[in-house]
Design a protein that fits this description.
Blueprint (H helix, E strand, L loop, with lengths): L10 H15 L1 H7 L4 H10 L17 H14 L1 H17 L4 H7 L8 E14 L2 E11 L7 E10 L2 E2 L1 E2 L3 E2 L1 E7 L4 E3 L13 E10 L4 E2 L16 H29 L15 H33 L6 H28 L10 H12 L8 H10 L10
Parallel strand pairs: 1-3
Antiparallel strand pairs: 1-2, 2-9, 3-4, 3-7, 5-6, 7-10, 8-9
């Protein structure tokens, strides 16, 4: 009912599409176990889903960003937790590009199919010590941490317990890269939706990190190419949007399947498929989904074409890219809610995928990248005002 865009069809996308039925069949298991099964992760690796944004120099596929998002969307039509885990592992590959070559030598020493996890919110502290940095703190929402080999964590730089300032008044931040075995996983992920993502908290207690495994997230990636001209900060929300679109598409397919199967609402004379109100709302949801998808790929494709041409994005272009997620996720939420409501009483049961789809999309919408702050940044630039820290 809602086919994927066909502008680019890669081997990875075709292989992932072949896995969709298997993934959908294990959605309840994934949710109850709150984590992807190891064998399914192996299947995703074999399909190429873990190396999409790994540089070719490191054995990866180095796929175009629009194509990577289409893979994430395809996975989300089967199960949003699987898609979210793959999406955040892909974001980790973007973050890894900021670290020195010596760190990347360690990360990819065993090959390109590396699951990375992490957090860019500066919830911890890094203090200079002999031979590097001492890292302490707790970080929430570290997706896929049970599968991760490497963890990136954003820290406040402190001197004698006090934040070090830069540019006069802003705190200095530093990303550190740690082997996953050196952090403690706190079992905190008991969530409304995206339950299978294992997005637990992690804790570091005075962990040593050598200088070659630290960097500033503001620094440009060392590797050249179009991804270097698209700041990783601007791309994270696009993955959230792709998951939301895919999950909403899955919900719409679920309720359409119910209707085609002859469902008849209680006390109704007509089948659901023949009810004018149902037809009206299904058609509306279908068009909302098309709008969400069109918005996502129009912005992404334009940004990618500019990056391929070697053009650095303007501040307004960056603000628009960041503001894409709240627009798209907002539309996807409406689609998922339409689908849930159209499913009637059957949708409330645990066995119904419609209630899970709704919870997943709602939870994705709580991500900071889907918040309204990004509208303000775009609006300030359009008004000729100072956007403040909106693009930092």
């Amino acid at each position: 009912m809602n086919p994927l865009p066909s502008a680019i069809v890669s081997t990875t996308l075709s292989r992932v599409t072949e896995l969709k039925a298997t993934i959908a069949g294990r959605a309840e298991q994934i949710e109850s176990e709150r984590c992807l099964p190891a064998d399914l992760l192996s299947d995703l690796a074999a399909a190429g889903a873990l190396r999409m944004l790994v540089p070719r120099e490191r054995g990866g596929a180095n796929l175009p960003l629009p194509e990577t998002l289409r893979v994430v969307e395809a996975l989300a039509t089967a199960d949003a937790s699987v898609a979210w885990t793959v999406a955040q592992a892909s974001v980790a590959q973007l973050v890894f590009r900021h670290f020195p070559a010596a760190a990347l030598d360690e990360v990819y020493a065993s090959g390109p199919d590396v699951v990375g996890a992490g957090a860019v919110a500066p919830k911890g502290r890094a203090e200079a010590c002999d031979g590097g940095w001492r890292v302490t703190g707790d970080w929430p929402f570290v997706t896929g941490i049970p599968h991760a080999r490497w963890v990136y964590l954003q820290c406040l730089v402190v001197d004698r317990g006090r934040p070090r300032l830069r540019d006069g008044d802003l705190p200095e931040l530093r990303l550190v890269l740690l082997p996953a075995a050196e952090v403690t996983v706190l079992d905190t992920w008991h969530s409304a939706g995206l339950r299978g993502t294992a997005s637990h908290d992690v804790r570091a207690a005075r962990v040593s990190c050598p200088p070659e495994r630290t960097c500033s997230f503001d620094a440009e990636p060392a590797l050249d190419g179009p991804l270097r001209r698209l700041p990783a900060r601007d791309q994270g929300g696009l993955f959230v949007a792709a998951v939301a679109v895919g999950a909403a598409a899955g919900a719409l397919d679920d309720v359409a399947t119910l209707a085609r199967g002859g469902k008849r609402p209680a006390f109704a004379l007509d089948k659901l498929a023949d009810a004018p109100v149902f037809q009206d709302r299904l058609g509306e949801a279908h068009m909302l989904l098309r709008s969400a998808r069109a918005q996502l790929y129009a912005e992404v494709d334009a940004a990618w074409e500019a990056a391929l041409a070697g053009t650095r994005p303007t501040d307004l272009a960056r603000a628009q890219l960041r503001a894409t997620a709240p627009v798209v996720v907002g539309l996807a939420r409406r689609v998922a809610r339409h689908a849930f409501e159209l499913g009637g009483g059957a949708a409330v049961y645990q066995r119904s995928p419609l209630q899970r789809r709704l919870r997943d999309v709602q939870t994705a919408g709580q991500h900071f990248s889907a918040g309204r702050d990004f509208y303000r940044t775009a609006g300030a630039l359009l008004a000729g005002a100072d956007p403040g820290i909106g693009l930092r």
